[in-house]
Amino acid sequence: MDSFPKSLNPNKHLREQFVSNLPGSSMLEVSALLNNVALLMLLRHTFCSQTVNDACRSLKSYLASVALDYVFLVLPTLLIFTVLAEWVYICMIGLLLLLVFFTAVKRTYSLPYMEGPNASRASISSYRVVTMFITCLCILAVDFRIYPRDYAKTETYGTSLMDLGVGSFVLMNAVTSRQARNIKSSMSWWKAAFKSTTPLLLLGFARLASTLSLDYQVHVGEYGVNWNFFFTLAGVSILTSILNVPAEYSGILGSVILVGYQSWLTNGLNVYLLSNERGTDVISRNKEGIFSLFGYWGMYLVGVQTDMLKEFHVECATWLMLLGWWLKIYSY
Predict the structure, then answer these.
(1) Residue 274 belongs to what H/E stretch?
(2) Which of 9, 56, 78, 184 has the fewest CB atoms within 10 Å, measured from its CB?
(3) Within 10 Å of residue 15's Cβ, how many Cβ atoms?
(4) Residue 85 has what DSSP assignment?
(5) pLDDT band (50, 70, 90) for residue 77
(6) Is the Cβ–Cβ distance between 300 and 240 less than 8 Å?
């Protein structure tokens, strides 16, 4: 049995129950949600591509670009993820028709800022922005009833929008890493690991201290008692620094790790991870977060090799998010 003391704050228990024991939605619905965001991005850059190009030239153009981002991306995404959740498929069809209409009116499908040597950087930047935006939106919205419970993180098995989060960040770190760009480091592996993980560890301990001091609700079934998202990213970085393989072979190693971890799960590890029993040692208290490192590490290595496909377009943001979500399913 769980021998750790329980909080006496009744509101904390209610908030934890509000985000617990959720079954999730379907793979098709999650894909539709992501496609809606990708279509909004395409509409933004197709309908107002010139504003994007001029955004850095003056303060007025920059403010106009920010306003358009809010109108075309932020507000519609917020509505689709909340009050329009029941019409997600209709929204996707409508956005697709709008995109076809605007493309036909312009008689071209050119995105000037996406052409040339900076196309890859622009596409990856779009993916990073969307990942951060969706993550912040979901984390803030999940505590409110207007946010569908089907989109919150699943308890044991299942699929949902918020299950995509950590996998997307891991993939985002992979495609922008020095390893993926074939940048050699003169530092030893332990110095490189220290440099890359120190900020993440500081953020992880800061979050741990703040949640403990404020008696904030923490669903231990997600990461464990003391583990959190930042520790997961730091752990993946440490493992990558210890075993640094060339980018062209990282996908093979990542696939082997994912297959091996999945086999371990199906042969009994999942029973241990899903049980409520915890010991007093660090591994037992944080078993969910610690053991998931193997899945995220494999995902990271696959993402490093994915970046070797240098010709990106803005649509790749959708496929990168879908890849991160698919790999997340098999990482835990």
Answers:
(1) helix 270-274
(2) 184
(3) 16
(4) G
(5) very high
(6) yes
Angle at 157 between CA 83 and CA 277, to 5 degrees: 120
DSSP state of 71: I
Does residue 22 come out as left (phi exceeding 0), alpha (psi in the -120 to 50 range) or beta?
beta
- Residue 129 and residue 135 in contact, taking contact as beta carbons nearer than 8 Å: no
At 8, list the tokens.
């006496």
* CB-CB neighbours of 144 under 10 Å: 9
Kindly report, residue by residue over 279-307, the tens digit of the pLDDT: 888 899 999 899 999 999 998 998 888 76
Q: H helices of 115-269, where?
A: 119-141, 165-175, 189-214, 220-223, 229-242, 247-264
The predicted model scores a pTM of: 0.79
| Interval 143-156: pLDDT, tens | 888 999 888 888 77
Return the structure tokens found at 39: 């279509």
Q: How far is CA 213 from CA 90, 203, 224, 261, 323, in A?
A: 45, 15, 17, 35, 37
Q: Where are the domains of the chain?
A: 183-306
Specify whether the CB–CB gap between 331 and 261 falls below 8 A: yes
How many other CB atoms are found less than 10 A from the CB of residue 320? 27
- Tokens encoding 114: 């996406």
CB atoms < 10 A from the CB of 16, how many? Answer: 15
Q: What is the pLDDT of residues 43-57, one digit of tens each?
A: 887 766 555 555 556
